[in-house]
């Protein structure tokens, strides 16, 4: 039954794509969005059914892919990712109904977007290496096309597309190598057979396959140092696409690492997982530092995706480390915490990207230094963005707090350990989590405070108005989930635990107590998020009531204090750049921001300044020190290699002869 | 952890803690001002002056800057509410806690963060240069204090295998040697530095300055007036009192009520108030002797606190 539903989801997705390619322009967007949303609905029902019953959804056909066949089997672990993809996809499609601009209504975009959403639903169901790689590449190509839809109007889109294309293809090559190595050594390309046979593989095969796969999936997840495409491509993509990429597509990187590391290879030595943890810590710190100092709203969100992927990797790595040092219960808790963070990240990041796109559409800018005062002009979108921002800062009573608390607990309980790897890794992990937590709070105080509060900093921001209803409904569903799961996380925790159990094969009793509180059985640590929320609500109401009782007369609107000046202009306000300035100064050694001050004096006297321009920029250290030199080196080699083929047909014939002789000598 | 204490006494303790914090916060500020004045050779206002100030402010008119949205009036409410919730759930006077099952140290840290974030957003909502300046500085210092605080929490949680406050406190009461370990002492210093930073005291921030270039906290609350300002002042003073009480519980827990009877509770009340007063006098005396640090020297202080708390964790592992 569930298999059929999955097929239906795929077929409806294809139909949406066909409609997008053929329907007349008037109804194209609406029709293809609704059909894609329907496909998400089918996928959601199928995945929820799999999670509920535990029976796999199996689809298999020989007609689609020659030689190898097309085979899918959705288990509880994959189903969790399908649910996330389906919910985000549904909301993005609702959002798209009201979204215009960025060329997303073109014929190409309307036919590619449904395909992209469908692959997001199908990738976690793939059951063989060929099927997986086929769907994975389809996802990469469709997302690349969607990033590029606006390339004619804005040249920076082309640059972003190039970065994305190169990084995703390098990642795919690493994946291909890693997975084919496993398939060849175990003699079968089905995931189940690889999982059964991988135990007997030599250690070097297992380790090299794992490293390759981490690199491949890590580049899709935006893991440092393979993240460079992400802060370029995610902001340039049209609104719903950026939400889908940041909230649903990066998750599949985590999916892949866990599926291969824990599932196919069945865990490994401690150094694998220490490597994953180290990469996660690096991603978290680097991503949060850059998002804290960025003044571009969507770039800030993209870097914060890298940050959150880092936290998930920290959890995944801790889980593997616990498993390899003989703590299966803790391993399950850590993996569940990472997966829970994945689910919650999808919800809040989806909501944030969608509301940021609404803001961009209403004001024509995503530069925080041009925004401001939007909460009063766009009350619904603004409030949704605030909910998302407070969630990502892990503040109670929203859901981001629960997953971070669980991650902290997992690390804390690994501590009184005689194992030096654990004893060193866990305090560092907590430190990283805490610093990123603090930086994320700063980032979103900046994003909310500069972007939505205060006075508008530009004319378009002052004229902005609320967006189309379906846009805030799309973002609103996700924001509501932030609150709902924050108050009642036990609605999702059992499913997440089941997913973790399925992939690790650990059959332990429930390590998290159910009911109205979240707790770890066996160890002592309990959280009652519902009660906490209730307490906060009661306290706020009581204090507000007391203030109301004391209040005499209406609240008087006053002019804010402007240091004695008559008028307070927006130019006197803090900007996002100035807000992040103390931090970028504190971390000057890591970020090395470039400052450029140009002062021109008037001709008569050097003591009088005629004009001064100050320019500051902050680019990615990995881009500057790793990618640019590499690209320049490759270009030099290319220039040298170009000297050989000079266009002369004689020379090419000679090449052919030499090659033939070499082949004959080698073979003979 | 579920306690076997009757629910009525649990609720009563909770209420008592909240009332003590409401009254004790302003009095603590008054006491610290008095100590400071005396050490500087002045007489100083009476200790209950902050309470009188609150009463005066509460009677005044409420104002709201032109540009502000609903965030501005909400921020002081959230600041006070988070502190009240912490005062209600944390074991401040009695170790068999009010709502002990959620009195998790990490949860308390994030509740404090919620209050700080609300205040910073309220500051930015005014649309003035001061609001942005204060919010930017306060959030930067807060972000840097966070790792030191959480790792110190971790160091305190390691011996008890839990970050649940009642478990840590009862554990320390039954194993007094925990309190004398180097790990605990290192964590103590780190925790104190973080408290000073989080509550905006010298040498991180000067609560009595109104000089544009140096103020942090005061810059954020510049636009508040009347009852809103009273709430901000009340919230800030309660925060300091609650943090002091937590500090006292974690490092010198003796005297805290371990059973629900009124006698135990009275003892808990007296000892906790005394401990908080001693800490207040100590900090005030320390403040007389130091000057405010330059803003860009504060990160070094925070980094020092972080190193201390990492050392605390490591020594807690090596010397359990």
Quote the average pLDDT of chain A: 89
Give me the side-by-side strand order of the main sheet of chain A: 3-4-5
Give me the number of helical elements of chain A: 25
Note the overall shape of chain B.
globular
Secondary structure elements and their pairing?
The complex is a heterodimer of chains A (668) and B (320).
Chain A: H1 2-22, H2 25-53, E1 57-61, E2 70-74, H3 76-98, H4 107-122, H5 129-147, H6 155-186, H7 191-197, H8 203-221, H9 230-236, H10 239-264, H11 270-293, H12 297-324, H13 328-363, H14 374-377, H15 379-392, H16 399-413, H17 420-451, H18 459-463, H19 469-487, H20 493-504, E3 512-513, E4 518-520, E5 526-527, H21 529-550, E6 556-558, H22 576-586, H23 588-591, E7 594-601, E8 609-617, H24 621-643, H25 649-667
Antiparallel strand pairs in A: 1-2, 3-4, 4-5, 7-8
Chain B: H1 7-39, H2 49-58, E1 63-65, H3 71-89, H4 105-125, H5 129-160, H6 165-174, H7 182-198, H8 217-220, H9 226-251, H10 262-289, H11 298-318
Summarize the structure.
The complex is a heterodimer of chains A (668) and B (320). Chain A is 70% helix and 6% strand.
Name some characteristics of this structure:
heterodimer; A: 668 residues; mainly alpha; 3-stranded antiparallel sheet; two-stranded antiparallel ribbon; 25 helices; 8 strands; 70% helix; 6% strand; globular; B: 320 residues; 11 helices; 69% helix
